[in-house]
Design brief:
Subcellular location: Cytoplasm
Bound molecules: adenosine-3'-5'-diphosphate
Structural class: alpha/beta
Protein name: Sulfotransferase
Order of helices and strands: EEHHEHHHEHEHHHEHHHHH
Keywords: Catecholamine metabolism, Cytoplasm, Transferase
Shape: globular
Oligomer: single chain
Number of helices: 14
GO biological process, one term: catecholamine metabolic process
GO molecular function, one term: sulfotransferase activity
Mean pLDDT: 93
Low-confidence stretches: none
Largest sheet: 4 strands, parallel
């Protein structure tokens, strides 16, 4: 097992094995009933998957275990260092509707998703917390490139030199297309602030109508506390040597504002100035505290 280097696909740095198989990734065609959850890594993908899976199973956690709709390996990560099955294999073994996850920026999402008018949920998280979370993920996921020291990591983040490319381009890309392509654009901070409101928002987007009790149960089952002990959600099903949970657990903190523990005043100033510059063309209502 090794930490894969990054290789550019149409200007976006992706893990080399994905880049090598790019043609089969690009050719993938979903079923119209499939749903896509798209995120920049560490923005709240697993949380949203868990909510959607429970919504589709009327809040029945046992039914989720028996017949999961969620593909927990990003389907386009078609490399599969043993013992992990490839996302594409998992996907092909399931019948639609499937909940597919991807970290690809919008321009690299295969055309079939748009042609088939699949529903797409995008989850965005403020840049600073997203970066802190990604930093720890890069430390514990032995297939990701070495993160190096925090100081240098900030620069890589600002330049878009991490796996899946620029956070700035990612969040802007989906934001600009959200109305035209009927994308439900969610924020991690909103989910933290009022999980019930956001669960209901997702429910409506999926054209479902569940009882108050069921909604309440889904909110409870998808709390950080419960998910941290759920082996399907906490990724302990991916053990060493791929994920080293002793370095940093997958379900790490689950907070808004943890970034204050990482940025020095100088780093903060540099980052904020650069942020202004990179985000000046859009007005996406990110919050770095709630
Ligand atoms: P932290 O590293 O800040 O703790 P992803 O699923 O996209 O990889 O995102 C993982 C991040 O979402 C981690 O952030 C994880 O703790 C957080 N997360 C997962 N489930 C959560 C929940 N139910 N509530 C709050 N945060 C959650």
């Amino acid at each position: 097992l090794c930490r894969f280097p990054l290789k550019s696909v149409r200007g976006v740095p992706l893990m080399e094995p994905i880049a090598q198989k790019w043609d089969s990734v690009w050719a993938f065609c979903p079923d119209p009933s499939d749903l896509l959850i798209a995120t920049y890594p560490k923005a709240g993908t697993t949380w949203t998957q868990e909510i959607v899976d429970l919504l589709l199973h009327n809040g029945d956690a046992e039914a989720c275990k028996r017949a999961p709709t969620v593909v927990r390996i990003p389907f386009l990560e078609i490399y599969s260092p043993p013992p992990i099955p490839s996302g594409l294999d998992l996907l092909n073994a399931m019948s639609p509707p499937r909940v597919i996850k991807t970290h690809l920026p919008i321009q690299l999402v295969p055309e079939g998703f748009w042609e088939n008018k699949c529903k797409v949920i995008y989850v965005a998280r403020n840049a600073k917390d997203n970066m802190v979370s990604y930093y720890h993920f890069d430390r514990m996921n032995m297939t990701q490139p070495e993160p190096g020291p925090w100081e240098g990591y900030i620069h890589k983040f600002m330049k878009g030199e991490l796996g899946w490319g620029s956070w700035y381009d990612h969040v802007k890309g989906y934001w600009e297309e959200r109305e035209r392509r009927n994308i439900l654009y969610l924020f991690y901070e909103d989910m933290k602030e009022n999980p019930r409101r956001e669960v209901e928002r997702i429910m409506r987007y999926l054209d479902l109508s569940l009882s108050d009790d069921v909604i309440e149960r889904i909110v409870e089952l998808t709390s950080f506390k419960v998910m941290k002990d759920n082996p399907m959600a906490n990724y302990t099903f991916i053990p060493k040597p791929v994920f080293d949970h002793s370095i940093s657990p997958f379900m790490r903190k689950g907070e808004v504002g943890d970034w204050v523990n990482y940025f020095s005043p100088t780093q903060l100033q540099l980052f904020d100035e650069d942020y202004e510059r990179q985000m000046k063309t859009v007005n996406i209502p990110f919050r770095t505290k709630i």
